[in-house]
Inverse folding.
């Protein structure tokens, strides 16, 4: 948010909106960080280092445009049923009910491909309560180990083939 704010002359709320983050919580976090940096006298140092990093990244022709990924995946709330069946079959994992594990897998993929927090994924925008987060954590712990390789192998096709690599 600091970077977006500095480069685009945004307010904290504007920077949060630009990144697709919840405004109220983002403002609270930003205020806490600014308070800590100011209390330690490191705000100017942090700002200078951030701008230095921006200059280096701007010259990197191999950088990934995570904003483009977020825009491309803006409606990626679930994996289509037929695709999910194939993924589960390849990974030898039970299919589960519609909108269950497949939705958590979509949130995990969104997070992985955008480097964003799964709670900011399109699938969690409408359903984000403690129960949903606990079910997601359970999915990551219990099901993801068997699904991860298959999901990553199919991710390029799921996002339209524009993704240069998956780490």
């Amino acid at each position: 948010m600091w970077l977006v704010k500095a480069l685009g002359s945004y307010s904290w709320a504007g920077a949060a909106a630009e990144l697709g983050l919840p405004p109220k919580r983002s403002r609270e976090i930003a205020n806490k960080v600014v308070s800590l940096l100011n209390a330690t006298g490191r705000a100017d140092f942090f700002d200078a280092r951030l701008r230095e990093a921006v200059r280096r990244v701007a010259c990197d022709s191999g950088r990934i445009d995570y904003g483009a990924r977020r825009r491309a995946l803006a409606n990626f709330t679930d994996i289509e049923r037929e695709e999910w069946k194939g993924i589960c079959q390849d990974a030898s994992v039970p299919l589960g009910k519609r909108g269950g594990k497949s939705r958590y897998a979509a949130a995990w993929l969104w997070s992985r491909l955008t480097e964003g927090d799964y709670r900011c994924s399109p699938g969690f925008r409408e359903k984000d309560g403690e129960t949903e987060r606990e079910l997601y954590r359970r999915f990551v712990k219990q099901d993801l180990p068997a699904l991860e390789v298959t999901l990553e192998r199919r991710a390029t096709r799921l996002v339209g083939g524009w993704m240069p690599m998956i780490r």
Summary: DSSP finds nine helices and no strands in the chain.
